Amino acid sequence: AKESGRNTFALYKTEMQAVSDARLEMEKALHHATESKFFKLYYQPQTNDKNQLIGAEALIRWKDEQKGFISPAVFIPVAEEIGLIVEIGQWVLNESLSQVAIWLKEGKWDPSWRMSINVSPIQFQQAGFLPMLKEQLEKHEVPASCVDLEITENMLLNDLTSSLEKMHAIKRLGVHLSIDDFGTGYSSLKYLKSLPIDRLKIDQSFVRDLLTDKSDEAIVHAVIAMAQALNINVLAEGVETFVHYDRLREIGCFFYQGYYFGHPVPPEDFIAEFVHD
Ligand code: C2E
Ligand code: CA
Ligand code: CA
Ligand code: CA
């Protein structure tokens, strides 16, 4: 028994070692990828109830030389922990704005459309975030009204006063603000009222079970009613089928994003698949 106990411990230690080796390896690869800009942005269409395009969400893709595509759901949290997210987020902003500038010049991007860009809480909280945003808008000569920043509820809780100030400053630039993954965080109704927000994105977890789960349906209903009262738009994420779309429209949600309308795709494909003149 003593012998096997020691073996178990040894095995455990080896597994722990393997996990931390893999983690270190990912950190190293992520540093390298950030320096060498091994990233790409994919774009997913956002539509209204008339099936018209209203914008796109920029979603980062990382293709590692050995491992192939690594999901942002895996590497963004690591990048946040080791601080690389600031540099990566800056790259994302620069890349997506440069793409909008190109499409605007080519007449492929309607100026009423919005490019939705994910902003990590850590990036948002940087003192330099606002000046950086301003500089990028000027550099690319993209109208601020073409830009929508997606932030999450929980980041606001850290320091509500300074977050609010920053949000108002962003709004003064003319940039739009959305709350991402809405319903998964902790924001109260009272405090939602005080936020200068244009749009809530209902988290896909609620949309997924909309047709089968009564409480998810109730939540979606409530979010839409509340948003209407506060004069905030609602966009549903993760709309995968016609029935989901149909039900959402019935409930009063008129903006959508999801595989039913289109997957995230490289820029060339975005124009080919979703932009018709
Ligand atoms: P998110 O911001 O909630 O993005 C939506 C995610 O849902 C994307 O995953 C998208 O590909 C996926 N999706 C879209 N439609 C559907 C659908 O109909 N069904 C299902 N099941 N999924 C759908 P993705 O691209 O893997 O990104 C995962 C997360 O990584 C994002 O979640 C976001 O939190 C983060 N992320 C992605 N790009 C960036 C970025 O540029 N900056 C930052 N800070 N985070 C990013
Ligand atoms: Ca998002
Ligand atoms: Ca989301
Ligand atoms: Ca998410």
Please give the structural blueprint.
Elements: H1 2-36, E1 39-48, E2 53-64, E3 68-70, H2 72-81, H3 85-105, E4 114-118, H4 121-124, H5 129-140, E5 147-152, H6 153-158, H7 160-173, E6 176-182, H8 189-193, E7 199-202, H9 204-208, H10 214-230, E8 233-236, H11 242-251, E9 255-256, H12 267-274
Parallel strand pairs: 2-4, 4-5, 5-6, 6-7, 7-8, 8-9
Antiparallel strand pairs: 1-2, 1-9, 2-3
The structure holds ligand C2E and calcium ion (3 copies).
Residues 57, 118, 150, 180 line the site of one calcium ion (CA).
Written overview of the protein:
Keywords: Membrane, Transmembrane, Transmembrane helix. It comes from Marinomonas foliarum. This is EAL domain-containing protein. Residues 23-277 form the EAL domain. The protein is an alpha/beta fold. It is 53% helix and 19% strand. The protein contains twelve helices and nine strands. The protein has helices at residues 2-36, 72-81, 85-105, 121-124, 129-140, 153-158, 160-173, 189-193, 204-208, 214-230, 242-251, 267-274; strands at residues 39-48, 53-64, 68-70, 114-118, 147-152, 176-182, 199-202, 233-236, 255-256. Strands 1-2-4-5-6-7-8-9 form an eight-stranded mixed barrel, surrounded by five helices. Helix 3 (85-105) runs parallel beside helix 5. The model has no long low-confidence stretch (mean pLDDT 92). The structure holds ligand C2E and calcium ion (3 copies). Residues 180-181, 201, 237 line the site of one calcium ion.
